[in-house]
Amino acid sequence: MDMNISAKTSSFITPREKKSILVASNLSHSFDYTLFENVDLEIKEGQSIAVLGISGSGKSTLLHILATLLKPQKGRVLYNKRYLYEQKSKDLLKIRRNDMGIIFQSHYLFKGFTVKENLEISSIIANKKLDNDLLKDLNIYENLEQNVADLSGGQQQRVSIARVMMKKPRLIFADEPTGNLDKQTADDVMDVMLSYILEHKAGLFIVTHDERVAARCDVAYRLKDKRLVPVIL
After folding, report:
1. pTM of full prediction above 0.85
2. Rounded to an integer, what is the distance from CA 45 to the centroid of its chain?
3. Rounded Cα gap, residues 131 and 187, in angstroms
4. Which of 64, 75, 97, 127 has an alpha carbon within 20 to 30 A of 119's alpha carbon?
């Protein structure tokens, strides 16, 4: 499979300047049945990648492997000149905490806390200040003093996205990040994430059912018949 798909150019990073951030090779994994076999994938600076597929096809499993959450049954993941799953647990945790931002389908917010308190917990752990511009871009700045339990599902989703992006990660892994959002808000969230990776030379890996979201990424794949197949949307 030819993985050298040309990405869209940007005013921040030209294709020639893009360097590899993460390279996965020969990944295979199964649970009760084989999800995928011999998957190769590369994420470059300033690049966004989307993976489409039906439920149960292995999209989230692939994301978890790339994001240091699940060791593949076969294959390797190279990040920053180190094979991730050959690192000690404490070193892998450090990479995940400092370099990777993971947006889950479930929000995992502290329901007894305000929006601000949820974000402050993340900012303290990451040793970063609250980014008010980011909160305004995600349209949650006015909700800072609200309890997250009182927010809509879409607002909670945006808080979880803000919490991850507050870390200034090198790689963002997003599992259905726009699943609870209306079309306009989904577009706004994608604008924020795509602008971020270009400005910070970061990478974005999304799994989604939404072809509109996938079409906005530089490269799109479909996980089908145990293979990662490039698609044009």
Report:
1. yes
2. 14
3. 20
4. 64
Cβ–Cβ < 8 Å for 138, 162: yes
Q: Rounded to whole angstroms, how far apart are CA atoms 135 and 19?
A: 29
Q: Which residues, other chains included, contact 140 with Cβ-Cβ below 8 Å and sequence gap of 6+? A: 115, 155, 158, 159, 162
Assign residue 64 the CATH number of its domain.
Answer: 3.40.50.300
Q: Which amino acid is at 27?
A: L
Within a domain: residue 206? yes
Distance, CA of 77 to CA of 169 (rounded, Å):
18
pLDDT digits (tens, 9 = 90+) for 104-118: 988 889 989 999 999
pLDDT digits (tens, 9 = 90+) for 53-76: 999 999 999 999 999 999 999 999
Start-to-end Cα distance in the chain: 18
Asked if the structure places residue 116 within a domain, the reply is yes
Q: What is the rounded distance in angstroms from the CA atom of residue 170 to the CA atom of residue 172?
A: 7
CB 155 within 8 A of CB 188: no
Domain that holds residue 145: 15-231
